[in-house]
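Checked the freezer inventory, then went back to the computational side. Two predictions to log before the end of the day. The first one is the construct we discussed on Monday; recording sequence and tokens without edits.
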Amino acid sequence: MTAAARVWHRFTPQQRLMRYAFYLIAVAALVQSVRTVEIIPEFLEDAPAQIVDLFARMWPVDWSYYPKTVHAALIETLHIATLGTILALGLAFPVGLMAATNITRWPAVRLFAKFILVSSRSVNSLVWALLFVAIFGPGALAGTLAIAFRSIGFVGKLLAEALEEANRGPVEALVASGAPAPTVFLKAYWPQVQPSFWSIALFRWDINIRESAVLGLVGAGGIGMALDDALSLLYWDQVALTLLTIFSVVIAAEIVVTYIRSRIL
């Protein structure tokens, strides 16, 4: 009597049931979302004509607007992104050390550090900008602080993870030789996490250029203020120039960061 052939299944019955339940929940969430946003069909029908009309108003581009306003605003945007990133690195470094389990042995300190990291990441940069505009008034200072406080969570979290993944061999060797804690960090941990740290810094600077470009919409300085002025006055040819400038700067920053990371780090 021959044994029955065994049939291989990719998923167990329990896994298939969970997958079907996930699909059902996803479809229900999609349907509920579509009902909640209250899409107006008339607006969808009119959208192609509105897009064509908008692009027609943007052409030809007002190139004379660049030296008058956009150039100075662009330089301010780069300053906001750069200074905000540098400030974030200085603030995130000790927080990342406190959040790393192999550096900080006290759970209360690690919990406090993780609270700072989560708080920084959970608040959008525009919300940070609104807060600092209310405190310091409109301008580049509010934008710089918004970029910095938004970046602390990103830089600190990745730094803590890099420290936790460091090889324990050099650390244990220095500890066994009686080296003090600062020496252990500088000679064992830092050489291992240094490439990751500078890579994180470059990546965050690239992100901050994109974010600082829109902070001016809430009065936090930079090229976003030039964009907001052009939008408020309905000068669509100037809006087109500002958008092209932002797009060009973002692409240039991406190229620079990629080149540095591939050649230096």
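The second is the one RB wanted added to the comparison set:
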Amino acid sequence: MIEVRLIGHDGFYGISDVLRLFFGNVKEDRGEHLVFSESEDDLRIISEAGDRVVTYVEGERDFWENTLTERFPESIETKREIKRQLYFLLSKKTGKEFPWGSLTGIRPTVVAKEVGTGEKLVSDYMVRPDKAKLCITTKDNEEKVLELSDEDAMNVYIGVPFCPSRCAYCSFVSEEISHHLGRLGEYADALKDEIAYVGPRIRKLSSLYVGGGTPTVFEDEDFRKVMMAIKDHMPIDSRTEITVEAGRPDTITDGKLLAMKEIGVQRICINPQTLCDETLRRFNRKHTVAEFYSVFEKARKMGFEIINTDLIAGLDKEPEELLRSVQGLLELGPENITIHTLYKKRRAALSRSEVLGGDDGLDEVLRKAYEMLECKGYKPYYMYRQKDTSHGLENVGFALQGKECVYNVAMMTDRRNVIALGAGSVSKRIFDGGRFERFSSPKDVLIYIRDHEEVAKRKVEFFENGVEDEMSEM
């Protein structure tokens, strides 16, 4: 049993994140101030916060206090200090190190912005040097993209939480069509109503992103209905970035591509995840590599300016398959390539051991993939991390110069307002000083369809109080 007792603080969240990194599933007993993990090892640790933080093995306080003081002579913010001390102790006891050190948060570029240099990420948070360099580079590019989005403008997300089938690695809040054949049309009508209510109340629109799920899951007529609602009611002008996450090649039709072109969509996502048919079948992706190439070529001929393609590192039985997929995409030349690392989603069909297995070379292969992209002029411009990711790795969006997605950065940095429409969507209102609040729409599609008018009104009211610049009628 690995056990951490908390004294003088309630940092369960951070303690759990670090313990999970080393030992897998963790449990909390808040009444007893404990976080623990089942293990053949037996280790009792005290995490104590008073005038300063000190983390030590039970019975060895003096040794660890002296060791930590020598290693970290200057304390950092308490929550981070608690995490880095526990990471340092467990690293010494187990001999394990992880690429991102004690940084377990989803947005490492936030910390990079604070510390300023890769050297500080290495020394203060034990981030591996190559990841520290990646983080600083991404942070710098992220800042340049953020300047393209006015602080007084709104960013809009329109969510379609439906997919034609559930991939084995996914537990996204989505409803399979086979269970809701009669609901997609109703959902399109509800979205159209919400767009019609919210859109005219937005004064200035920086970016609009239609995501999912799979937005192109609609029949052509319903998809066009949603696109035309955007055109008719959103304050789109020549500077507005519009992205549609078309996603699954098997759902993209000529009619949907034409509807996107008609409203001025510049950016679409066509996501193969891998260029290996066997892997696609194994993970229940209902398309082939040939279908991906066909749809990509069709979108190119229709004049879409920017195409993003997603890959997932860790799907393949052989990590080197990722490099073959990257090479295949480079030959196509999409403007954006995003590489996600497979992670264990709570309700996914994949087991935790399948996702977080032993050292299979994925870390090194991912490094090579990044080098391949950068050699062809692709630069990392946004990044995020997730819990239970294979090898503690990351997700990174790469783009050619000037082809970055403003919405991705606006959403990921928590420094721009986002009003999100549709079931399960989360709006974000930013305040001076970096504080932000969220408004969540109902996750249940049927509840959203029933209550969408009231949800839209409450969402507008959420932005009303003290946020007059974004919405014209407030």
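For RB: Confidence is low (pLDDT under 50) at residues 344-358, 466-474. The chain is about 40% helix and 20% strand. Let me know if you want it refolded.
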